[in-house]
Design brief:
2 copies of one chain form a homodimer. By secondary structure, chain A is an all-alpha fold. Chain A is about 65% helix and about 0% strand. Chain A has 2 domains: about 60 residues, Arc Repressor Mutant, subunit A, CATH 1.10.10; about 120 residues, Orthogonal Bundle (Tetracycline Repressor, domain 2). Chain A is built from 10 helices and no strands. At the A-B interface, α7, α8, α9 and α10 of A face α7, α8, α9 and α10 of B. Chains A, B: InterPro entries: Homeodomain-like_sf (IPR009057), HTH-type_TetR-like_transc_reg (IPR050109), HTH_TetR (IPR001647), Tet_transcr_reg_TetR-rel_C_sf (IPR036271), TetR_C (IPR011075).
Chain lengths: ~200, ~200
């Protein structure tokens, strides 16, 4: 982008504040209710500061989804970990109203802004799903999952749990309940917890 | 409701046209973009005809979701059937852009209108999920699913498949692809197709 050449060097603090504000507004109002003007106002920067960096609302929201740094919204851990750690992390994540709202807004935007879903799944979720495949391989090696289990199995378990919480509507979903669901799904696959 | 007492008897043809129009607008524009005025116009009836029957946009959309009669949007078959029939039905359903859009709009509305999700899952999906439990019980009896399989297993498989298609974003999803996903999930559970 030519923005940095046309004016002052970009302030990385501004970028982070803008992306945080965009994510907040997406969660509160949905993609249709989020404007570049609204994001600039929320971030406390000039409208032009946002436009210099992201030309369209869609570009801005895609960047916000890709770089979402709020720890409460982080997908499955990107580093290695045990299956038990993944269960704990995903149960906590999927029970958070803010995360459920984010998922609902992203999926809800898929008719008018399908690129947002792609940005979220391919740029934010994909690296984390690849880490999950590594966790599954390790669980097979450790005898916690049956030999020959497809390393993509945790992706399926995650998709099932996301479908489960998103179809709950008004009801609150507790971490304990998501964990029971995750363990039921993993039970189908033949998961044997350690110890 | 007092509507019928205050004026002419309700015309069931009007009701059906109004609910069809409400569902169409929900799919096209989302809950936030659907107004009682817009629905009346689309259905070709007076605004008051809609208001007499449904006081709020939310009431109207809940009724539209409950009574959705478009065969292209029908959830899993409500009558008995084999697991193979369910696979074929769900694969066709989940690959339809109109159904994916409906699900995206319903889930997308869950932040601002959580009652819509409840109406859809409890009134439209629930009876169909109960029929799926019957299909699972029959499959166990026929030796296609392992003894002791939880009859709710098909609900989990369905939730997983819905999560899968909704997170696809821009990509088209074919019925063959959904079917492969369904068979992979059923494979985890130990499904043995007949024949």
């Amino acid at each position: 982008m030519a923005g940095a050449e046309r004016g002052r060097p970009r302030d990385p603090g501004n970028d982070a504040a803008i992306l945080d504000a965009a994510l907040d507004l997406l969660i509160e109002r949905g993609a249709g209710g989020t404007s570049i003007e609204g994001v600039a106002q929320r971030a406390g920067v000039a409208k032009l500061t946002v436009y210099r960096r992201w030309r369209t609302r869609e570009d801005l929201l895609m960047a916000a989804l890709e770089h979402a740094r709020d720890p409460d919204l982080q997908g499955p851990p990107s580093a290695g970990g045990s299956l038990e750690e993944v269960i704990g992390h995903v149960a906590a994540l999927l029970s958070r109203p803010r995360f459920r709202a984010l998922m609902a807004r992203v999926i809800g935007a898929s008719v008018d802004h399908p690129k947002l879903v792609t940005a979220y799944t391919e740029r934010h979720l994909r690296p984390r799903l690849e880490a999950l495949a590594e966790v599954a391989r390790q669980a097979v090696a450790d005898g916690q999952l049956p030999p020959g289990t497809d390393p993509g199995v945790l992706e399926d378990v995650l998709a099932g749990s996301i479908g489960f919480v998103l179809l709950r509507g008004e009801e609150e979903v507790t971490a304990a309940e998501v964990e029971r669901r995750l363990r039921a799904l993993l039970g189908y696959v033949g998961y044997e917890p350690p110890g």
